[in-house]
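Suppose a colleague, Dr. K., hands you the sequence of a protein chain of 374 amino acids and asks what its three-dimensional shape might be. Before reaching for any lab equipment, you can write down a predicted structure in token form. Begin with the sequence itself:
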Amino acid sequence: MSSLFQSIKLRSLELKNRVIVSPMCQYSAVSGNAQPWHNVHLGQLMMASSGMLVLEATAVEDIGRITPACLGLYNNENHTALAALLSSIKSIDVKSNTPICIQLAHAGRKASSYEPWNGGSQIPIEKGGWECVAPSALPHLEGEQVPRALSETDLVALTNKFLDSLRRSEKLGLDAVELHCAHGYLLHEFLSPIANRRTDKFGGSLENRMRFPLQLFKSMRDVWPAQKPMGVRLSASDWDSDSSWHTDEAIVFSKELEKLGCDWIDVSSGGVSSNQKIDLKPGYQVDFAEQIKRTVNIPIMTVGLITDAKHAESIIANQQADMVALARAFLYNPRWVWHAAAELGATVDAPKQYWRSSPHEVGRLFGDTKVGQR
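The predicted structure, expressed as tokens, is then:
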């Protein structure tokens, strides 16, 4: 049996296979509200037969959006728009509907940016941007606006915003939550000494730098239903020799998260340093995932330029990770899982309207489905 197509359980949630649709920002929301584009984008991914679909990074306050066109869940309008979207995509008739996870996030000092196709640089306040916040008053890039350093009172208020978005996620019937602590956004900024130069209890030592992200996770885990899983995406390295945030520190952070009831670690890297030097190649982050997997007893997810089915299969079979998340591969081929199943001799669930698509030479790609023809 294919290792990639074995089920895995996260608390009460059973995933039919180990392929995860990674969160992919679409920069297509209006005032944080989901739009028709999201129906098209996520509708096809609901038919992808993955183990779990993770919604794009969803901001917990308006100034926490990466761009003005990023998704949010911080007010009633956001909630209503997302509820309509979820109702639409969940109506897709698949024998076993794909679980949906939301990634809750705050962009910190990397907020107030143009969409990638508009250059991706920071938007000046006089051109519609906004004041960013961060652990310390340090801009991401030289010449950008200096973010406002968060006070301890601000951190209490910010925690409540995460909890408000979390409660909205529960009301929306979402199956799981992932807390975004990666890619140079706010929680990663607390973890990395590149962005965190605080001299209070939230800066300096590793213990202090981890303090706010861990406190926040605990508060969220206490509120999120006990039967539902909650994971964390982290950057395992800053890819900058001047930073102490590397895999050894990420391992310590992962161990602490495990103690607090974290159900998976989604291992990525980079994003906080303008001097990062990343060795881009297929599976370039798998080694980070494997190192963390050796030290914790919760499932590990890996991501990063994994596009080949046999490569994904080998990662699971060789116990380098427990789940494989794909992003760009799904944008290029929303039926990636079907093709992988055909190549690896597995079966998947799919909408009955598509059962006839299985190539004759593949055999029973969709299990015991039978399609008549007049």
